[in-house]
Design a protein that fits this description.
It is elongated, with a radius of gyration of 49 Å. Helix content is about 60%, strand content about 10%. The longest helix is centred in the middle third of the chain and has 58 residues, at about 290-350. It is of the alpha/beta class and about 575 residues long. Helix 7 (about 175-205) runs antiparallel to helix 12 and helix 8 (about 210-225) runs antiparallel to helix 12.
Amino acid sequence: MKLLQLTSDNPKFKTLNFKDGLNIVVGTQLTDEQKKTINGLGKSLSLSLIHYMFGSKFKTSSEKKLEQYLSEYGIFELSFIHNNQEYTIKKDFSKSEFYINDEKIAKISYTSKLTEIFLGKDSEISFKQVFNCFSRRFSSEVSYYSNVLTQQGRPLEDYYQKMTNLFLLGVNLSLVKRNFDVKDKLSKLKSAEKTLKEYEKKLDKNNINDIKDEINRLKEQLDNFIIAENYDSLKQEADILTQNINDFRNKIYIISKKIRMKELNLKSSENIDIDIEKIKEIYDEANFFFEEKITKRLEEAQEFHNNLIQNRKKRLSIELNDLNIDLIKLEQNMQEISTKRDSIIKDLDSSGALEERDSLKDRIKTLEEEQKDLEKYEHILNEFKKDKVQLEMNETIIKKESLSYLEKNHNRFEQIEQKFRGLVKRFYDNTGGSLKIVETPTARYLFDISSDIPKQGSQGVGEVKIFCYDILLYLLNPNLLDFLSHDGCIFSEMDKRQKTMIFKLIIELVQNNSLQYFINVGDSTLNEILDKDSKINILTDEEKKVIESSIILELNDIEPKNWLFGESFN
C-alpha cells in the first residue's frame, strides 16, 4: 500500500501529498498540556485522521468531540495504491457510510471490505488489526505506546490483540484457535457449573424413582376407575335440562316485563274523566253561552269517552289476567324441570365422574413432565461431566502439541529473536535484549510474546523497544502493507542519539525496500536530529538532506490558518 493524498473539500484543510519512502509532518513543539489533548496544531491528528478514514471508531470523550467537529467540517478523501490499483476513500463524518471508488459501503461492511482488498476474504485477521500494528497512533486516553503488544489500544491480555501479534510473528494460529475454543468452552462450563449444582440438589431432593412409583400407582388407579354406565347420557340430559331452565327464565323475564307495563297503563286509565260542568264554567266566565243543542252534544261526547276508557280498562285487565296465568305455568314448568335436573345431578355426584378421571390424567401428566425434567437435568449433569473431562483432555493434548510446536520451530523463532536483537543493538552497545515465543497454557492465546531490553524500566528504553518491535514486524511481513507510521510521542523520552538512530534506520529501510514511512515530529526534535554541529555523527549529510526533502507538511502556531484544519478547533 502506498498513500497518495489526504485532502478535504474544505479549502482550509492542509492537504497531505504523500511521497514514496519517508514522509514527515512537522509542527511547532507543543506544551505538555497540549500534548495530552486533541487540541493543538493537528500534527498527531494527521495520523489519526488516516485511521478514521480506514474505519477506526471514535471511542473516547475527546474522540467523540473530534467526530462532531469533523462532521461539520467537510468531506474527506484518502487515496492510495494497492496491488497496482488506485483507490479513493470518501468520508462525510456526518453520515455513517463510506465510499470506495464511489461505491457506497455500509459502516457495518466497511472493515470486511478493507480486509478483502488488502488481505483477501479468507484472512485469519482483519485489515484494521494489521494496520494498527503497522501504524501506531497517539491518544492520551488509550495506551497504544504502553507496551510493544498494545497496538490495538486494548488491555495487554486481550486475545485478538495477542493473536494478531502472533500471526505477524509467523506463529501458526491453528493451535491458538483450538486452545481458545477449549478455554472458551471450559469457561462457559464453569459459568454453568453453579446452575448445574442446583440441578444436582434437586435430583437428590426429588428422587426420580419415587416419581415413577407414584405415576405407576396413579395409572393403576386410572385403569381400575369405574364410571356409571349411564353417566354420559345422564350428564347430557342434565345439560339439556339446564338449557331448558335458562330458556324458561328468559320467557319469565319477558312476560314479567309485559305485566309491569300493562299494570302501569291500567293505573293511568283510572283517573281519566270528562266533566261537562267544568267546560261550561270556563266558557261562562268568558261570557260565552252554549245553546241547549250544543250542551246536549257535549253530553254525548262525554258518554262516548267514558265508554272508551272503560273498554280499555277491561281489555287491559283481561290481558293482565292471561299474562299472569302464563307466568304461573312457566314457573311451574321450570320448577318441574329444575327438580328433575337436581335429581340427575345428585345421581352423578354419587357415581364416578369423568372430571375425576380427567383429574387423575392431569396429575399423571404433571408427574411425567417432572420426571422428564429431572431426567433431562440428570442427562445434562452427565454430559457436563463428560464434556469437562473431554475438554481437559483436549487441553492436555494441545499443551503437548504446543511444546512440540515450539521445539520444532525453535530455529525459526531464534532467527526472529536475532533480528530483534540486531535492531536493538543499533541503539545500545553490547545490549540486544530478547524476544521469545513462550507457552502460556493458562491463557486463551496459548503462546505469549516475551520481550526484554536491559534497563527497559526507563521510558526512553521502552519507546526504543516499541520501535524495534514494530520494525521487526515489518521485516517479517515486508509485502503485507509496505507501510509503517509512528506518532511523534515515541520520541518523548528518548535522548538525541536514539532519535537520530530511528531516522537512520528508517532511511535505510525505505532505500532498500518498497516501504513508505510516515511520522510526525515537533520542530525541536527535527532540529536536534539535523544539528550540523552535533557531536553525534550518526547521519550523513546526504541522509540529513533526505530528511529535509521528506517534509510534506509544516504546521506552526503563529495563527490558526497554519494549523492542519486551517482554523482553531476544540
